[in-house]
């Protein structure tokens, strides 16, 4: 059963002579529990696609379904709630709040969800599993890149999303830290059945996934 479906999606930026067709007629399905890698040269449209899937941007044409909901039909408030409860994001630059410690960064998405109980036991479990429980009182600038990325992954998982979107999750890490992050993603996929869509330029990491979706000049070529 597909958790994600794109139907004839296009994304155009700018107007007239400044117009850029970032995505061209993209149709794609991702099955529940699948680990899919999106690869392609810089500027080929990979990150644009991820932003559209996650509802961070809107397509110019076409429809995007997540868990059978056409996200373009949702109001801004509905989309915010739907995204928070169903989709986790892991970015290359971590996107942590510098004024919050590790624990509060991870708990942040739950605090946005008014009325939702903060499951402190689950947050502790996540931080222990990721090997950063002892860093819970530290601030992002006191952590290594690998530790910051683990905090970002914990934050992405705190609402127990159905799908995890990763944009170059190991791009700023050395090979050892990158391998550790990839091992964690594989464990989440295999043991927890989490659907993962990952943008990467790393061919060897892409080959470890269930499927490689190749992008070139805004189109899927294979």
What fraction strand? 25-35%
| Helix proportion range | 25-40%
Helix/strand order, N-terminal first? EEEHEEHEHHHEHEHEE
pLDDT < 50 stretches: none
The end-to-end distance, rounded to whole angstroms, is 21 Å
Average pLDDT works out at 91
Within the largest sheet, what's the order of strands?
A: 6-7-8-3-9-10
Number of helices: 7
The gyration radius over C-alpha positions equals 17 Å
- SSE-based structural type: alpha/beta
**Shape call:** globular
Query: Major beta sheet, specifics?
Result: 6 strands, mixed
By DSSP, the count of extended strands is 10
Protein model, in words:
The structure is a single chain. It is built from seven helices and ten strands. It is α/β, with parallel strands linked by helices and 222 residues long. Strands 6-7-8-3-9-10 form a six-stranded mixed β-sheet. Strands 2-1-4-5 form a four-stranded antiparallel β-sheet, covered by helices on one side. α6 links the parallel β7 (163-167) and β8 (195-199). It starts with a strand and ends with a strand. 36% of the residues are buried. The model has no long low-confidence stretch (mean pLDDT 91).
Present the secondary structure layout.
Layout: E1 2-13, E2 20-31, E3 35-40, H1 46-53, E4 61-66, E5 69-70, H2 76-86, E6 87-90, H3 102-112, H4 120-129, H5 145-157, E7 163-167, H6 175-192, E8 195-199, H7 203-207, E9 211-216, E10 219-220
Helix pairs in contact: 3-5
Give a short overview.
With 222 residues, this protein is α/β, with parallel strands linked by helices.
């Amino acid at each position: 059963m597909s958790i994600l479906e794109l139907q004839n999606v296009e994304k155009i930026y700018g107007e007239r002579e400044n117009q850029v067709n970032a995505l061209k007629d993209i149709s794609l399905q991702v099955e529940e529990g699948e680990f899919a890698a999106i690869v392609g040269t810089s500027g080929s449209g990979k990150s644009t696609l991820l932003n559209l899937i996650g509802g961070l941007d809107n397509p110019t044409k076409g429809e995007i379904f997540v868990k059978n909901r056409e996200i373009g039909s949702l109001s801004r408030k509905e989309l915010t709630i739907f995204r928070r409860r169903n989709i986790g994001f892991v970015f290359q630059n971590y996107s942590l709040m510098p004024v919050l410690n590790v624990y509060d960064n991870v708990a942040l998405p739950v605090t946005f969800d008014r009325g939702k109980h903060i499951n402190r036991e689950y947050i502790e479990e996540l931080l222990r599993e990721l090997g950063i429980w002892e860093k819970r009182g530290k601030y992002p600038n006191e952590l290594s890149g690998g530790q910051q990325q683990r905090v970002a992954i914990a934050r992405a998982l705190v609402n127990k999303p159905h799908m995890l979107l990763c944009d170059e999750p190991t791009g700023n890490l050395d090979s050892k830290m990158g391998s550790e992050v990839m091992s964690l993603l594989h464990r989440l996929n295999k043991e927890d059945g989490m659907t993962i869509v990952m943008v990467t330029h790393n061919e060897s990491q892409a080959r470890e996934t269930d499927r490689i979706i190749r992008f070139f000049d805004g189109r899927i070529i294979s």
